[in-house]
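Intended use. Records like the one below are meant for learning the mapping from a protein sequence to its folded structure. Do not use them to infer anything beyond what is encoded.
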Amino acid sequence: MIINDIYLLNFRKYQKLHLSFAPQINILCGPNASGKTTILEAIYMLSMAKSGRTSNDADMIKTGEELFYIKGSFKVNGYNEILSIAYDKKGKQVKRNENLYKSLSEFVGIVNVVMFTPRDFLLFDKGPSERRNFIDIIICQVSKNYMRDLYLYRKILKERNLLLKELIHNKNNKNLTLLEVLTTQLANHGDQIIQYRKRFINKISKLAGIKYQTLTDEKNKLELVYNTSTNGGLLLKQLNDGYELDLAKGSTKTGPHLDDINFILNGQNALDFGSQGEKRTIILSIKLALLELMHEIKKEYPILLLDDVFSELDNQRQNALVTALKTDIQTIITTTSLAGLNQKLLTNAKIIETEKIGVDF
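Structure written out for the chain above:
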């Protein structure tokens, strides 16, 4: 799949912007704060219906304006797709070929992207929530059922935690009955989330292991391991067994919202023992594996968005990434300087200087 062009109106720094892309390599070059990352953010939004930088849509409205509008033209499985997102104080509207979608979940994943930013290198330094979010974002692109289960699980979890706090002061029959209902619902969706994650992580682990060996040495062994304290299909029992602890803490202490992912390199947890170079190679391996997994699921490659990543990679890893960029993977790269890029990229790339972008709409 590819993006042909994108239109922005009142989106962050851009009042109006129309930008076209080449079907293979595109390089957005310009100084910091020139709008490079904003363009990638807009493309990401047309895939995920939300930003990867902020949870508040209002933050993306250009200062002094009341709304923003994004529209992208794509080629997906041979078909033309026009996707758009409009946001104002009334809320968000998403459209596909001018047809309004009432549900964001139906819009997400029409177009697939793999986003690679310097923030990804912090995956080892952040807590489990960052690693769960990393996996959840990817699975949501390829599974509507997972997105639904995840949304409902989070909604019910919030309701259950509020009820647990109330039960500390008011343990009446109505509240206890409601807790039983919420616990059952939470367990049903939680069990589904755990099974989805296990299957997905198992698939990506195999592909990432192969990529890691390609980038380094065939003797190295990389595995991704889903670290969950919840036994498959037994979440309801564990929630009921943990009721007293949950009540004392005023929150739910069992479930997939507490799980983690371990990166095992040659038998050791890279979170604790991996060098910076090994950690960067693990993340690179996972991103490259995601391209292949999405190709396997969707029968075509996603759009690859690389936000100032080359400045974070040494020559060996730059070469490995460039080699992995197949001709049928559209790639959009941001950089502050062409001099810092691998020269192989520049041969057939479309260079877009962000300080010279026109504003015709």
